[in-house]
Amino acid sequence: MDRPRVGELSPPDRLLMGPGPSDVHPRVLRSMSTPLVGHLDPAFVDIMDDVQDLLRYVFRTDNQWTIPVSGTGSASMEAAVANLTEPGDTVLVPGNGYFGERMAAMVERAGGEAVFVDAPWGEPLDPAAVEDAFDRHQPDIFGFVHAETSTGTLQPNVPELTSIAHEHDALVIADTVTSLGGVELRVDEWGIDAAYSANQKCLSSPPGASPLTLNDRAMDKVLARESPVRSWYLDLSLLQEYWGDERAYHHTAPITNVYALREALRLVAEEGIETRWARHRRVAGALKAGVEAMGLELDPDDDWWLPSLNAVRLPAGVDDGTVIDALLEEYGIEIAGGLGNLSGDILRIGCMGHSARDENALALVSALGNTLEALDADVDADAGASAARRSLKR
């Protein structure tokens, strides 16, 4: 076999405004070029401590068991679901989006039975429907998606949902993949027993070390399981020996990704978590004002609008792939189309982390307006750009 001839690595410079990943801060990129040490090196153990403390700050929790899982957000999702779901458990999952369906698939693989809370895609769960589902199914676990990436829907009334679950002696798992570090999230205050996330969205770190937190009640169930977790790699009873006090070998951690996550979390702490939530809302608000002024609609109602992920309804007769391709090829801007029930109906525009900046919102609104006008869509690009600028000046 001939030796392959491969050129230098030179990916294009994109503006990442899709559902993730988001742009990475230069400081985070620099952190990844620092010297590698072993995953049991005392210096790395200190870094592990830093990351855990910083994650507690961002999750707004005092949970001892707060770690980055080695893998993307789907790994932290499966770690939460697989460890808390024992064979025979009934798990109530949301039926209002793509990632509720993924949660159900993981429950089934863990040996549990998934039952759904019915809700239309693009709407949050109704507490009355959750209460009714508890009365009918008596689940052991309740899972909900705080920020549904497929629909741009933010779940309000979280404390009300967790209270319902706890009144029925059920544990609560929250999907915070598109909310952690971008919109208000208070794990302890809101009564969330376990929450998982991803680091490439509102935290703006390269994927590979994904946040997870469990309170004592959730960890007690993990440690008292009668059957082993079906994943050795994601078994939290084993991982606690590495991320707990012992620091005993379990697997080789993604050291460079942990460096990056630490620096990304430092940026969050320096900005201040509440200031960061406000920045996301302000910049996304300009994006929202711009697309609405040009004549487009956001899919979710204002009451459950998700600033970090905006689901923009396509004008009649416009193909989502054509718009996505044009933005990428002509402007270097990445966005995405809809998933599942909303495939072909919406554009998903992220406003997350380092991408959530004034100049990026203005660039996206302008490029989107120009692209749609070139496709003869009934929009007013100038009105959109003006509205976005006015919003940022308020």
From TrEMBL:
Keyword Glycoprotein on entry: no
Region of interest (Disordered), ranges: 1-23
Required cofactor names: pyridoxal 5'-phosphate
Origin superkingdom: Archaea
One of the GO biological process terms: glycine biosynthetic process, by transamination of glyoxylate
Single GO MF descriptor: L-serine-pyruvate transaminase activity
Swiss-Prot/TrEMBL keywords: Aminotransferase, Pyridoxal phosphate, Transferase
Stored Gene3D superfamilies: Aspartate Aminotransferase, domain 1, Type I PLP-dependent aspartate aminotransferase-like (Major domain)
Residue ranges occupied by any Aminotransferase class V domain in the UniProt entry: 38-338
PANTHER family: ALANINE--GLYOXYLATE AMINOTRANSFERASE (PTHR21152:SF40), AMINOTRANSFERASE CLASS V (PTHR21152)
Family: Belongs to the class-V pyridoxal-phosphate-dependent aminotransferase family.
Protein name per its UniProtKB record: Alanine-glyoxylate aminotransferase apoenzyme
